[in-house]
Amino acid sequence: MSSLRECPSCALEFEDTGDVTECPYCGYEFPQRTASVRWVAWLLALLLLWPAIKGLMYLFG
Ligand SMILES: [Zn+2]
After folding, report:
1. Domain limits of the chain?
2. What would the pLDDT profile of 30-42 be if each residue is shown by its tens digit?
3. Burial 9-28 (b: 16+ CB within 10 A, else e)
4. What is the whole-number distance in angstroms between the Cα of residue 27 and the centre of ligand 1?
């Protein structure tokens, strides 16, 4: 499962193996994938912290 992908920064094509986060030629970081990874990290953190948040709300609310 690999396809050619064009870098939006230097316009060179490279093989996208699925876990490519930056251009192998110019080092440009692809914003969409990074943003989605950040969102997943935030959601996971929120889920892990949710009991603590509820506890704090109980204490201060
Ligand atoms: Zn590039």
Report:
1. 3-60
2. 876 566 788 899 9
3. eeeeeeeeeeeeeebeeeee
4. 6
- How far does residue 40's CA lie from ligand 1's centre (Å)? 25
Q: Give ∠ CA 13-41-46 in degrees, rounded to 5.
A: 160
* This model's pTM is above 0.70: no
Interacting residues of 25 by C-beta distance below 8 A, sequence separation 6+: 7, 10, 12, 14
Which residue type, as a one-letter code, is found at position 41? A
In this predicted structure, what is the pLDDT of residue 55?
94
